[in-house]
Amino acid sequence: MQIFGAKGKVKGAHQWRGVIEEYRHRLPVTSRTPIISLREGGTPLIYACNLSELLGNNVWIKYEGLNPTGSFKDRGMTMAISKAAEDGAKAVICASTGNTSASASAYAVKAGMTPVVLIPKGKIAMGKLAQAVIHNSSIVQVNGNFDDCLTLAKELSENYPVALVNSVNPFRIQGQKTAAFEVVDMLGDAPDIHAMPVGNAGNITAYWMGYKEYYGDNISSQLPAMYGFQAAGAAPIVKGKIVKNPETIATAIRIGNPASWAQAVDARDASGGVIDSVSDREILSAYRLIAAQEGIFVEPSSAAGLAGLIKYKKAKKLPKDKTIVITVTGHGLKDIQYALDSTKKPVVIPVDLKAAAKALGLK
Ligand SMILES: *Cc1c(COP(=O)(O)O)cnc(C)c1O
Description:
The protein has helices spanning 19-22, 49-55, 73-86, 99-110, 126-134, 146-159, 170-176, 178-187, 202-216, 236-239, 261-271, 280-294, 304-314, 337-341, 353-359; strands at 45-47, 58-63, 91-95, 114-120, 138-142, 163-164, 193-197, 225-231, 274-278, 323-328. By secondary structure, the protein is α/β, with parallel strands linked by helices. The chain starts with 18 loop residues before the first helix and ends with a helix. The longest helix has 15 residues, at 202-216. Residues 71, 73, 99, 167, 197-203, 252-253, 299, 301-302, 329-330 line the site of pyridoxal-5'-phosphate.
């Protein structure tokens, strides 16, 4: 295979090739597109025994935190940056609640471009900021929220030589739809329900696009109902109006005016699904549950899909014995604030067997 910039051929060890190489025939690339990839995608779909029991369904977790920069954003970014490279871009810009900037920065430097990121002041998790910093981004904190950052990024890309790589960039959605392909390729069919968090609504749009594409080509026999969950303090789609000052601890979905609003509504209605909201308390409770019972560490925003299903189960609004896939969007190590808050301080003991056993409650 061709590896961008690699000197000489690489021996063919079996390794996932990244979403563009794996699904090339379904993506808008040509032989002239330089493929900028960190071998994103190919993430595990993990059967969740304990959550299956809890929810009365067969529950699978699509663990997107295992992408190269720790979130699903890499699927779209490999496309956006590859197409920007094809166009000869020297610099790329994005507005970000954190993960887009982490991903854009990594893929931009891989392509030899300068990454420029606009982030809302004080509202980004430290792990994500660290990623943008370590990849040498030009970072500007904007005294405003994500929606303000996106407006500014668009204006900059229209007036200066920087390519916009937010999910309004159609190539991002194209790359992200590959997650739906992976689910069907693994399960042998589409699930009955697919649940996930909704922020700017690009991801739910992308999954729906991917599922429809496979269904249209008879690769799957059904389409899932799409269940999207917003944070209660940032739930414009649920409320049917823009939220001026969105507030939630789930910073990745702290968005008041989603770019893909109409497409998300279409995915909901065409699939017979729902877009609903969950409180921060419900999000944090699901966040702890999936870590404690399934061994999967996600960032708080990523737990919104599970939180929504638990809420629906309690309200007796969840069907039984269905196949449900939950996308958990980003890795827990990006935003550890709430993990540490919930943990008791470790006990300090001398180097002593009896003391250790006593402290650990071993008998
Ligand atoms: C971007 C992001 C979301 C929201 O996805 P949208 O496509 O904006 O709806 C959710 N969780 C995490 C971890 C994200 O990075």
